[in-house]
Write a structure and sequence with these properties.
The protein has 349 residues and is of the alpha+beta class. It folds into 2 domains: 12-109, Phosphorylase Kinase, domain 1 (2-Layer Sandwich); 119-348, Aminoglycoside 3'-phosphotransferase, Chain: A, domain 2 (Alpha-Beta Complex). 43% of the residues lie in helices and 11% in strands. Strands 1-2-3-5-4 form a 5-stranded antiparallel beta sheet, with helices on both faces. The chain has a two-stranded antiparallel sheet with strand order 6-9. Strands 7-8 form a two-stranded antiparallel sheet.
Length: 349
């Protein structure tokens, strides 16, 4: 049942038959509802006649890059983290064969809560008191994730355990250099930041599961301000937890910040804790040494500058339609990220 909506990318009878034969606790037929978000993956909510709810996810239609939209990776991660203190949906089943519906897909439980993408989401979903709780829960969950030994939960082969930050620096610097001509934009400060990051790189501790995009847009939050689930694990890997922590801090916008495409950030609402409180909470939960935190903040701003630069280059070269896109604003965002990276580097020097 789809209430007349078009269900894209799924052979509904075949998928429901597969779920019936390969999972427990769900009884097709389902009522299908398209869910927004999810990095363009085709994501639908399912509800059976008994009121049991689940979510099914598959990659977008069309040809994909080899490692893009890896549903098996996501399923393995939520399966591994299921028994831990990290709130993730229940993993029902993963279909590796494309014969069922043209692509691999997986089924997980549907968790109550709301992702906070914009300021309006926070204002509508949370009281001012609840907003204060969000920051503490946000850090408690990240600390719980970084306390998990990946080998003990079957995730020890999720990625390389060495040189996470070094590999990231090299990857995104190559992206900048490859995009500079197409973007008609280069900046000597970006190259200086690259050299600084390479030369001053701290020694990494034990590798942990890093989410890679940990922010309130990828978490479900209850109306009481508690995280009920962390979603979208497809770029998660093994790496330096301090890099993941710094990324999360950089997503947590404060009213006094020089904003980078975050003018409508949910954490601008009255009641959210300042970043300093989040830092204290994470440190108290993990016992981590914060000496090198400015380095990791610098690294994440550098990385963001390179990512936006690559997108800007594709617009400038006509590889993406620029209709309705403020290209001057994109350009200014790159410069703002570089400036923020420089400030963090100065704190570390």
């Amino acid at each position: 049942m789809s209430d007349g909506i078009e269900i894209i990318g799924y052979d509904v009878p075949a998928v429901e038959k597969w779920i019936s034969e390969n999972t427990e606790g769900l009884a097709p037929p389902f009522r299908w509802t398209r869910l927004e978000g999810g990095h363009s993956n085709l994501t639908y909510g399912l509800e059976d006649s008994l009121g049991n709810k689940a979510v099914v996810r598959r990659p977008p239609m069309g040809e994909l890059l080899p490692k893009a939209h890896d549903m098996g990776r996501e399923f393995a991660i939520i399966s591994g983290l299921g028994p831990t203190e990290v709130p993730v949906p229940k993993a029902y089943g993963y279909c590796e064969s494309p014969d069922v519906t043209g692509a691999h897909f997986y089924v997980m439980s549907q968790v109550d809560g709301k992702a906070l993408f914009e300021l309006e989401d926070a204002l509508e979903h949370l009281s001012e008191e609840a907003r204060e709780s969000v920051g503490l829960s946000f850090m408690d969950v990240l600390a719980a994730l970084h306390s998990v030994d990946p080998d003990e939960v079957g995730l020890g082969s999720l990625g390389k355990k060495e040189d996470y930050v070094g590999r990231q620096i090299r990857t995104w610097y190559r992206s900048w250099e490859a995009s500079a001509e197409g973007a008609s934009y280069d900046d000597p400060d970006l190259h200086k930041l690259h050299d600084f990051l390479q030369e001053r790189r701290p020694e990494e501790g034990p590798a942990r599961v890093v989410h890679g995009d940990y922010g309130l847009h990828n978490c479900l939050v209850s109306s009481e301000g508690q995280l009920t689930a962390v979603l979208d694990w497809e770029i998660s890997t093994l790496g330096d937890p301090m890099a993941d922590f710094a990324y999360a801090l950089n997503t947590w916008t404060e009213p006094s910040d020089e904003l980078v495409n975050k003018e409508n950030s949910p954490t601008l609402a009255e009641g959210f804790l300042p970043r300093g409180s989040l830092i204290d909470r994470y440190a108290s939960r993990t016992g981590c040494d914060l000496t090198h935190l400015p380095y990791y903040l610098c690294f994440n701003h550098f990385k963001t500058a390179c990512i936006i630069h690559g997108v800007y280059a594709r617009y400038m070269q006509g590889q993406k339609s620029a209709e309705g896109v403020d290209l001057d604003y994109y350009r200014s965002r790159i410069g703002t990220c570089i400036e923020m990276s420089k400030r963090a580097a100065e704190e570390f020097s």
